[in-house]
Amino acid sequence: MQSIGEAFSVALHLVATGDADLFEIVLLSLHVSLSATLLAGLLGLPVGALVAVARFPGRGALLVVMNALMGLPPVVVGLLVYLYLSRSGPLGFLGLLYTPTAMIIAQTILIAPIIAALSRQVLEDLHAEYAEQFRSLCLSRRQTVLALLWDGRYSLLTVGLAGFGRAVAEVGAVIIVGGNIDHLTRVMTTAIALETSKGNLALALALGLLLLVIALGVNAAVQTLRMSARRQAYV
């Protein structure tokens, strides 16, 4: 077990020298989380937009479900994906368990409801603001959705960044379906947990520092986009 001072010193050295193993883990984390965010956006944004502009029986119940799914327990999602992708599961023939693809699937399921629910709120507020104008222009539902997506692009980008932040910090689901295999499925969060349990504080701290930098970068990007959206609104 290293002392805290020694661990910090070695951690900073690993980051400064671009340690190959360290950045292999970071790059895999970014690949998995960015891929999941993109897929979740492709799934969640259309759902959020449709629910925002449509009025149909059962919409209230659907909203309750959408909001509830934002709090999906990661380990439960990981377990369900594991059961489907395991050798005895219905998708076991694909051989995806303990691969980055399985981790992307688990993260997509986790953050798609978040993107759907948050984008629905953003687009519904915009729709309420422009509803009379849309009716006067006799826009179809598709045209209305496209107009709302474009007008709310900055706010929707912040929604996507929020989803990415949730994905990159995930540990429960990805360790179940990925297995934390060295040089294959080891990402920042699972590596931090493993290295801490092994007493390798230097690598754990180095990964923690980089994860913190990424989280701060995401928050800074969200804040910048929000400020841009406000400036656009005043133009």
Task: Explain what you see.
- This protein has 235 residues and is mainly alpha-helical.
- It has one domain: Orthogonal Bundle (MetI-like fold).
- It is built from ten helices and no strands.
- It has helices at residues 4-16, 20-53, 59-69, 74-85, 100-136, 141-151, 153-168, 172-178, 188-198, 201-234.
- Helix 4 runs parallel beside helix 8 (172-178) and helix 5 packs across helix 8.
- It is found in: Cell membrane.
- The chain crosses the membrane at residues 30-54, 61-85, 97-118, 156-181, 201-222.
- Keywords: Membrane, Transmembrane, Transmembrane helix, Transport.
- It is a multi-pass membrane protein.
SSE blueprint:
Elements: H1 4-16, H2 20-53, H3 59-69, H4 74-85, H5 100-136, H6 141-151, H7 153-168, H8 172-178, H9 188-198, H10 201-234
Helix pairs in contact: 1-10, 2-5, 2-7, 3-5, 4-5, 4-8, 5-6, 5-7, 5-8, 7-10, 9-10
Pfam families: BPD_transp_1
GO cellular component, one term: plasma membrane
Keywords: Membrane, Transmembrane, Transmembrane helix, Transport
